[in-house]
From TrEMBL, chains A, B:
UniProt cofactor(s): Mg(2+)
Binding positions (CTP): S50, K53, H139, K158, Y167
Pfam families: CAA_C, NTP_transf_2, tRNA_NucTransf2
This protein's encoding gene: cca
Organism: Thermococcus aggregans
Miscellaneous comment text of the record: A single active site specifically recognizes both ATP and CTP and is responsible for their addition.
Record's keyword annotation contains Metal-binding: yes
Subunit structure: Homodimer.
Catalytic activity: a tRNA with a 3' CCA end + 2 CTP + ATP = a tRNA with a 3' CCACCA end + 3 diphosphate; a tRNA precursor + 2 CTP + ATP = a tRNA with a 3' CCA end + 3 diphosphate
Record domain Polymerase nucleotidyl transferase: where: 36-138
Protein name: CCA-adding enzyme
Alphabetical GO biological process terms: RNA repair; tRNA 3'-terminal CCA addition
MF terms in GO: ATP binding; CCA tRNA nucleotidyltransferase activity; magnesium ion binding; tRNA binding
Enzyme Commission identifier(s): 2.7.7.72
Length: 449, 449
């Protein structure tokens, strides 16, 4: 298809880029080998990830350098020696910092390339796997062995998924991982063929490239059973215990499903390179819908997205629950950050009339006589005295009171910043105008946009 | 006290009135005896109630004529013969109609007196009691034997309770019955002494004039245990199984408690003969409180108060519950009838913005493709497709929809009339203006009014 060629021209690394990538990675591996030798460590440097598999997109080349230790190495030894070795490689590369996943690892940059230096075990099979990253070695090997020249098809699929915002297995995306796209291409042979079979894929649901359901039925069926609520079950060719698509959400699979159908009917470049969504005036939307926007803005804490975004989500849902309890209807939620972090709540109203029923004591008591004497109007329901007054309450006051009384479930690291948040009614600062429009108009979620 | 004399002048039947009452009741009993003889029924006519006990208020004299059958009579026989006999007495008196309580009985009028003709068993002791009305014979006898000339004190107490709206044991009043006022006077000797002891009464709580707790401890303590949530436990002098005050609510006892204290401090004629509550403009109250009034008006069904008012209460509470579920806050309820029956709801708002979230089908289906095609904006949550639109909804529309869908719990006999009800917003017809004012201003419940 002419269109796909046009896309490939944009996303396939040029010969020149490939040469640079190859040269640089070779240098990096060389430096690693030197450091290993110098230190006398028994580890092997291994390139993994999309560069190793040659499935990276033009201009998008992070180097994943794994340091594979013998299986006999103890976990402490691996952590300690691995980190030390990483640091000295990082030093040689220029500069580094230590990052934390299951184990600490080193992040560095070299000649404009981001380099992650990650210690792991030198596993030969899934039975050897001890840490979460070990499997990457096997993934890389398996893909290289099976990709069979369809690397560009993977690139098309990756770009397509990026275009429709369904790429990435991060907890705040819950889309398709790089490895999953590779397996889908290996299964279906080409990007277009995958798209042709998206209904079949959704219905058959299970992909088992290595025939684990035959070879290791007990383990593989356990995986299927455990993952039965997932939209896809792709049994990892290198590990029957794992569903490669376990992070994929129904939402993101659904977006892919509909976009695949649309692309088949009307293939357009925009699927791969979507124009910025058209935006408009959020105030118009508010007027049209008759709803209201409450925005909390506060300084973005120094947290990586994997931690910050789930905590923002949790906090937004905490506000939803607490405000519902206070009699406000919350129609939808939005969160994120631009310069500062924000939580947006679309609500039915910004003021409530509250008739404050003042419950008094039960009436056979001294305090009851007091209450009776002090209030102008008093009546009895059950054994208790009551009086009342009516007040108008702004949702801002209600939120401030909820926060002061710790009656909103908030993300752990956001409690303090949210207490200091600015609370804006039907108004956002310029940095959030577009976000507010996309949220209120639903264009943010609209698949048909 | 001079004031009490003044009250008694108004409420004590004059000699002339007494003579008429005596003459008329004698005639009625005479007619009953003739009919019994004519029919050859073995029943004895017995006068019970406030005329028999001489505790009636001037101008307030309904005749309770009981037809006491021997204990051997079967229940069917009693019902049948009792009703027939009642009808022929009623015919002799002029006209009659049949009314229904536990058993059918006859209501008639004679020379301006209302006459209830009720068949019962001629019981001598609580152990004989078979039907709910039998005990009245024993009550009348006991009061006559023990009243000891304090009849006018009973009259003062009755009038006082009427003045503060705490008289009557009907289910929609839950106040002091006539028999309970008599027992309270017999216990405390006088109206003023009862008032002096109201705190003590509230705390000691138990009155046992016949010493049942000694004579029949097992039965009497069971009564106390069963009634322990009542504000008063007055063990029936003629039946240890019964709390004479069991119908008395905490509310009505509370009103009595506070009014008794106030009267002791500042005795005034108004306690006995309260002026009509001062009324005002309900629209002003609405404006001041910022709340809203929803009134349903419909033709009053032909039902006695004992049935109609509890059903109106049940229906009002049904609306409260359903509207809360729909997102409206209901602050207070009122019900009753003037010319027509009404239910009033004080609510926080009369319009809601409702973002109609249109849930579609799950997306791996033919219907999902349809939904996707037909809606302008579509997104996915979980496996499901969604679209939305926002609408403004009036509480009137919401109520009409709730009624159309049978989603309000209504009193059994009110379902049809309420479906035809007019629903008024922040406006009532002239007949209800005063009611609306008293309700919204809380003067209706205000004890201090």
């Amino acid at each position: 298809m002419e269109l796909l060629k046009e896309v490939l021209e944009k996303i396939k690394p040029s010969e020149k880029e490939r040469a640079i990538v190859n040269a640089v990675t070779k240098e990096i591996v060389g430096i690693a080998e030197e450091e290993i030798e110098k230190k006398g460590v028994s580890a092997t440097p291994r390139l993994v990830g999309s560069i190793a598999k040659d499935t990276y997109l033009a201009g998008d080349h992070d180097v994943d350098l794994f340091l594979a230790f013998p299986l006999e190495t103890s976990l402490e030894e691996l952590r300690k020696t691995g980190l030390e070795l990483g640091k000295s490689i990082g030093e040689r590369l220029g500069h580094y910092e230590v990052a934390y996943a299951e184990h600490p690892y080193v992040r560095s940059t070299y000649k404009g390339f981001e380099v992650d230096i990650v210690p792991c075990y030198n596993v030969k099979s899934w039975k050897d796997v001890k840490t979460a990253v070990d499997r990457s070695l096997l993934h890389t090997e398996w893909v290289i062995k099976n990709i069979n020249g369809r690397n560009d098809e993977v690139r098309l699929l990756k770009r397509f998924l990026k275009g429709i915002k369904a790429y990435g297995s991060e907890v705040y995306v819950r889309g398709f991982s790089g490895y999953l796209t590779e397996l889908l291409i290996i299964k279906y042979g080409s990007f277009m063929n995958l798209l042709e079979n998206v209904e079949f894929l959704g219905k058959s649901k299970i992909i088992d490239l290595e025939g684990w359901l035959r070879k290791e039925p007990e383990i593989a069926y356990k995986t299927v059973e455990r993952e039965k609520e997932s939209p896809l079950i792709v049994i990892d060719p290198v590990d029957p215990r794992r569903n490669v698509a376990s992070a994929l959400s129904w939402e993101k699979f659904g977006v892919f499903y509909f976009k695949a159908r649309e692309f088949r009917e009307k293939p357009r470049l925009e699927f791969f390179f979507p124009p910025k969504k058209e935006t408009g005036d959020y105030k118009e939307i508010l007027k049209k819908k008759g709803t209201h926007l409450v925005t909390l803005i506060f300084p973005k804490p120094e947290l990586i997205d994997d931690i910050l975004l789930p905590q923002l989500e949790r906090s937004a849902k905490g506000f939803e629950k607490s405000l519902k309890r206070e009699g406000f209807e919350v129609f939808d939620l939005n969160w994120g950050y631009v310069e500062r972090a924000f939580i947006m709540l679309e609500v039915d109203r910004v003021e409530r009339t509250k008739v404050l029923l003042k419950p008094g004591p039960e009436f056979l008591s001294e305090r009851a006589l007091d209450f009776y004497a002090k209030n102008q109007k008093v009546w009895i329901r059950g054994k208790r005295l009551y009086s009342e007054k009516a007040v108008k309450e702004s949702i801002v006051d209600v939120i401030e009171e909820l926060l002061a009384k710790n009656q909103v479930a908030l993300g752990k690291n956001l409690r303090e910043p949210i207490k200091e948040a600015e609370i804006l009614l039907n108004f956002v600062p310029p940095e959030l105008e577009e976000e507010a429009y996309l949220f209120l108009s639903k264009e943010k979620w609209n698949i048909k946009g």
